[in-house]
Amino acid sequence: MKQLRFLPMTALLAAASVFSSCSDDPDPVVVPPNESGLIEVNGGGATYPNSVFVSLRSGVQTSVARTTWDLAFSTGSDFKVLINGTTGAMATATTETDINAVGAAEIAAAEASGELVLSFTNLAGIEHVDDPANPLSKPVIAAVSATEASNMVYLLSRGASGVDAKPWKKIRVIRNGQGYTLQHADADATTFSSLNISKNTDDNFVYVSFENGVVDVEPAKEEWDIAWTAGTSSTPYPQASNGTLAYFYQDLVYHNIYGGSSAVQVAEATIPYDDFDETDLPTLTFNSDNRLTIGSNWRGGGGPTSAPAVKTDVYYVVKDANANVYKVRFLSLTKDGERGKPSFEYELVEAGN
Prior knowledge:
The chain has helices at residues 9-21, 104-113; strands at residues 2-5, 36-40, 50-55, 60-65, 71-74, 81-83, 90-93, 154-157, 169-176, 179-186, 193-197, 205-209, 213-215, 226-236, 244-255, 262-267, 299-300, 309-310, 314-319, 325-332, 343-350. It is mainly beta. It folds into two domains: 2-67 and 221-350, no CATH class; 70-215, no CATH class. The strands form five sheets. Strands 1-4-3-14-15 form a five-stranded antiparallel β-sheet, with no helix packed on it. The protein has a five-stranded antiparallel β-sheet with strand order 2-21-20-19-16, with no helix packed on it. It holds the Pfam family HmuY. Keywords: Signal. Residues 1-22 form the signal peptide.
């Protein structure tokens, strides 16, 4: 996991002033939020290998390979587990609670149906992914029951969207006190491994890799505001299950709905970006439960008849967990012509706590 810091001069001068004037003060120094900044996202290049988490308050971005993890375990009071939508992972429940009872027959049925392939032709795909807008609201893996016998075995395709395909897994999750126990194995194996996972409430999730156990992915939940990544999205489509088609998208931007961030889109024609200030905030309704509020809406094109491009007629206002409010405007999709390296500018509109 790689972190890059971009601090504008105003923040550096403010921090230096605080340190010089309070050198004998035993109380911790509080550095004010950045007043403005420019972020060139380290998405890794044309194959968009990274997810990138950005703190507007500090100007820090944290890049992590999308293939770093397989499952994310919620640290809240619920017991929920997410699959890796950034690789196009998909899952389906079996009828078994014994992981060793699942094998060749179940694999063959899932492969024949194509249900675990994320594509525009899989009209049932939305049934096999976490809800793209709010994954914890409707995860594909059922909430982990306190009744152990109610927790089923799932077949998991680890995804092959912009990444190399990995062997399917079979998994079962049960509660372990206030944490979890993960049972996992290759889909055709006759034995399995177990991993105990404790909740860490400083984070939104505890991330797990089948190869490496617990791994670092996103920063602490109050230390990032928006994230750029490729990942599973959705669009209305009447012929698909529930009228919604799941598909993979290269340039998604999430805001941190589980860490206290909220966001809203603003039309340039309504209030120009350069004119937007704190007096305009009462006119906005921030969204705190749909992480796709920015989503794919910041760029357009990319179809058979047009190249992808940043939309210049919209921008975004983001409120962080400390009630700092920023206006954010995307500037580019590429750096020196290379995809996977978008950029945006931002400016503090109102300081919070």
